[in-house]
Amino acid sequence: MRSLLGFTALTAAGALVLSACSEDGTAGGESGGTIVVGSVNTLSGSATFPEASEAAAAVFDAVNAEGGVNGYTIDYTIVDDKGDPAAAASAAREVVAQDEAVALVGSASLIECQVNADYYVQEDILSIPGIGVDPDCFTTPNIAPANVGPFHDMTLSLLYGSEELGLDNICALLEIAGNTLPAYKEAIQRWSDITGKELLYIDEEVPYGASDYTSYIVRAREAGCEAITVNPVEPDSIGQLKAAEQQGWDDVTWLLLTSVYSENYAEAVSETGNGVYVPAEFYPFTDSDSPETEEWRDLMVENDIDLTSFSQGGFLAATYFVEVLEGIEGDITRESVREALRSMEPIENPMVGTPYVFGPGDTHHDNTAGFPVQLQSGTNEWELAGDEWLHIPEEHLPGE
Amino acid sequence: MLQGALAGLAAGGVYAVLGVCLTLMSRLVRVVNFAQAAAGMFGTYIAVWLVSNQGVPIWLATVVAVGCGAAISAAIGWVVSTWLSEADTSARSAVTVAVLLLLISLSFILFGNKPQPFRPILGGPAFQVSGVVISQVAVFTVTIAAVVAAASHALLTRTAVGIKLRALSERPTTAELIGIPAKLFGIAVWAATGAVGTLVIAIVAPSQSNDAIALSMLVVPAAAAALLGAFRRLDLAVVGGLALGVLQGAAAQMTELSVARHFLPFLFIVGLLVWFQRKEVWDAAR
Predict the structure, then answer these.
(1) Would the ipTM clear 0.85, i.e. be above it?
(2) pTM score of the predicted model
(3) Membrane-crossing residues (chain B) (predicted)?
(4) Which residues in chain B have Cβ-Cβ distances shorter than 8 Å to A219?
(5) A377 inside 8 A of chain B by CB
(6) Which residue among B208, B214, B253 sits closest to A242, beta carbon to beta carbon?
């Protein structure tokens, strides 16, 4: 069902290229002392991501409370794409064409980039998603997410497994929805280029949302995998860990992605073999006394927003955006925001290992650092698995 | 290959149990119950909520879950037998599709869409056959499939209640005229299959991925299993469920078959439908 959604998204994206031609490209933001900033999020349906835009809203509220940016108040508009391509397309049109937003900030959606990337180019508007998921979030000119993304995250996860943990026989179980396969393969290839190592095997046809993963786990065990890397959604990963537990396979290491880094996941699994390792895309929020996350944590607690990677992404996207706005001289319009983001200097933040820059590039896949965390059997709690950021070596990055 | 096939037994057992429930429903109350697995999912979610929020012991929560699953199923049965007693199988089955969607949505509303922290009642390996681990859950599901099928068969052929149930399913009007309480019997069948379905889902959910949709959609392979017995024969439903599980397990071991894996239940269904129609003359089949 979920992979169907991906295909539908693709078709809708294609249709959009055609329909976008009829839209007129009005530049907005001249409604006196208020600018509209939009955000397209999956807020209803079977998988929802409300925290990123809630966190961004908290940042903008705090800015507005102190008089706004250069005299402008930010009117933050959050729209729901319901995880549905058609709704995602109309949500983007609502904020871009109707509300005349100057930019999109803090979005978090499974399909939004894929559906709207061409429309944003057409309308000359830039988007800083809090959490980008699909490949189009990282490979199109007008979108530059605050997060690392699942593809670099997979390279980092493999690097941690092979280089830090010294694991040799790593296997990959990929759950592919829509057009993500080439991007994951590229991520794995990047790891091979860096380390000179190969995966034992890659299974590209592991189903999303299956009820029982035992046979996939048995195959991996038979093949002699020491570690398994997966790009899972939470319930699927829980199913895979439980299948390994049922098989009595207690010495497998899991090299997973930030998609499972949540307190809810830690609560739901008890047996993790030799451990679940994740390169967290932001400084680990579960390290509760860390000065790195203090500013974010205080704001989230004050606004009663869940402490998750999503709220970190939304917070960062909004924080970067405000800093760029502050540097704009003159009117804040879609055009001036675009110019400012494209010519911005990199912004450092203790919650990320790579400074953020939008820049003039045609692709934006520049956040390349993760902070390793681990979940060991019986603890139900994430712990730090290192004391420094893990980086993808620069010479192996695209465009280098 | 053999390892993979045996690994599919746990899933196959679940398909078989649910397939037997579907067969019973189809035979006795003329319904293909698409909400069979969803009722079990909902009951199980209630159990998880009781364990994690109310501190209820897991065995007691499971008992409550089975009761809830039976009650949900009985409630649908009451609606169907009250307002659709004369309707054909398609109309009666359509009601259960609505209930399936309702239960999935309701579980999102009540329990959220994040995975639930299930604690297993049964867990870990039971024994090994030539190096292949058979899990306790696999032993349980296969056993309960066989037991439920055998017990249902015995009930229907050897007891007075069974004779009355068969009378109701084969000659409903005649049966009612001779004083068999059709509605009561119908609801009892709904409740019993609801209870069995919930029990098996409550046992397997902690060992699988357990979001509302994945659990509710177990009804698809279960329907494929029931179809092998043409929704009439319990023994073939068990065989169908186990065969499907084993096939899926074996297919997962081979990269060449990777595309077919997702569609196995559907291929199974289409293949069986074609086979059943093999002797039909073109015009007569329509």
Answers:
(1) no
(2) 0.83
(3) 6-24, 31-52, 58-81, 93-112, 132-156, 177-206, 212-231, 236-253, 259-276
(4) 3-4, 252-253
(5) no
(6) B208
Model confidence pLDDT, tens digit, residues A90-135: 999 999 999 999 999 999 998 899 999 999 999 999 999 999 999 9
For chain B, list the domains and their CATH numbers: 2-285 (1.10.3470)
Please say if the pLDDT value at position A1 is more than 70. Answer: no
What integer best gives the mean pLDDT of chain B?
88
Q: Is residue A378 within 8 angstroms of chain B, CB to CB?
A: no
Q: Kindly report the three-state secondary structure assignment for every residue of chain A.
A: CHHHHHHHHHHHHHHHHHHHCCCCCCCCCCECCEEEEEEEECCCCCCCCCHHHHHHHHHHHHHHHCCCECCEEEEEEEEECCCCHHHHHHHHHHHHHHCCCCEEECCECCCHHHHHHHHHHHHCCCEECCECCCCHHHHCCCECCCCCCHHHHHHHHHHHHHHHCCCCCEEEECCCCCCCHHHHHHHHHHHHHHHCCCCCCEECCCCCCCCCCHHHHHHHHHCCCCEEEECCCHHHHHHHHHHHHHCCCCCCEEECCHHHCCHHHHHHCCCCCCCEEEEECCCCCCCCCCHHHHHHHHHHHHCCCCCCHHHHHHHHHHHHHHHHHHCCCCCCCHHHHHHHHHCCCCECCCCCCCCECCCCCCCCCCCCEEEEEEECCCCCCEEECCCCCEECCHHHCCCC
> Which residues of chain A does B218 touch, with a Cβ-Cβ cutoff of 8 Å?
211
Domains of chain A: 2-148+291-342 (3.40.50.2300), 150-280+369-396 (3.40.50.2300)
Question: Residue B10 and residue A246: Cβ atoms within 8 Å?
Answer: yes
B208, B244, B256, B266, best to mutate vs chain A, most A CBs in 10 Å: B208
Within 8 A by CB and 6+ apart from A213, the residues are A206, A236, A239, A240, A243, B208, B209
| Contacting residues of B for A260, CB less than 8 Å apart | none
| Cβ within 8 Å, pair B8-A205 | no
Least Cα separation, residue A17 to chain B (angstroms): 30
Q: Tell me the pLDDT tens digit for each residue of B105-162.
A: 999 889 887 777 777 777 778 888 777 788 888 899 999 999 999 999 999 999 999 9
Put simply, the answer to whether A218 touches B4 (Cβ < 8 Å) is yes
